[in-house]
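Can anyone check this?
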Amino acid sequence: TRKESSAASDVYKRQAYSPKIKRFYKKDNYHRGFLELLDAQKQFIKGNYEKAGKIGEKFIEKGLNKTDNFTLQHIAYEKLIPIYEKLEAYALIDQMYFSLDSLKNIQFPTNSPRFHEDEIYKAIYYTRYTNKFKDAQTIFDNSFLKIVEKNFHTMSYKHLYFSNALADLYEIIGNYTEAKKILKVTFNNSKKNHGAFDYIIGLQWLRLANLAIETGDYQEAREELGRIENLYNEKVNNHAKGKALVYIYYAKLYLLTGQYAQAEEMLTKAQKESNNNQFSQKDIAEFATLYIKQGNYSKVEEILLETIEVKEELYGVCLLYTSDAADDSLRVD
């Protein structure tokens, strides 16, 4: 998710300045509002997405839509969107991007890198959560390749993040040649920037392994995953989250090759490494797919109903956000 690298430092700032801000500024002041945003971000960093979302909702209700402080609005939307992406609140995110479009036209020249950064984040959202792939491609062509890429060093975090996002788009639309080309460049840049034994290196390596899975190069994928697992076991201080991701990709590989027992073993290992609380809806879908392949429909039903219950708790039983999971549960029988 975007801007997570600066999130921790923002929270430290909040801890340092919170008492002074509460003493000298009124509740509707920009600085007091910013404190609430940092409270939401603190929960986001900890993985407490529901708490972060509720804080964000209160902040929106209390004054975000009432203030004419464009800077506060802009920062608020940037910090809230990643939270609601985790919560899959897409209708709310669409509203936020609509508001951001108006704000950036007021705040930034249309030829400035800062203007186009916001466009790229929107393209990433289109790629990950919608089917607006042509719109995303147009934005990447005009905003990243023509403007932003030329203004960021190849070893910068944003260059890496945007490049990976473009590779994701190419992979989704089936342009695997371009996707692999970009991922090889970002992998080599990461090694130069972070060294050969770093968590980031493993993540970039996993992208290449996943691409091998997607293109049917299963032997190559198996060999790459073995090397990455070794990296996380021996070189990166037994990194739990990294290992969980490796096991998830192993499971995906085994599912595609019909090795369901091995897939279930890997998903169980991934769940153990992630302490049962780091799984996205996509990861849960891997479990459901596994049990469908095995014909264990009662287990599929259990997983999908659990997904619906979580969404209903977050968004209410009648809202759009539960519809995808509900449709899936209807198809099981």
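Reply from J.R.: I decoded it. The radius of gyration is 21 Å.
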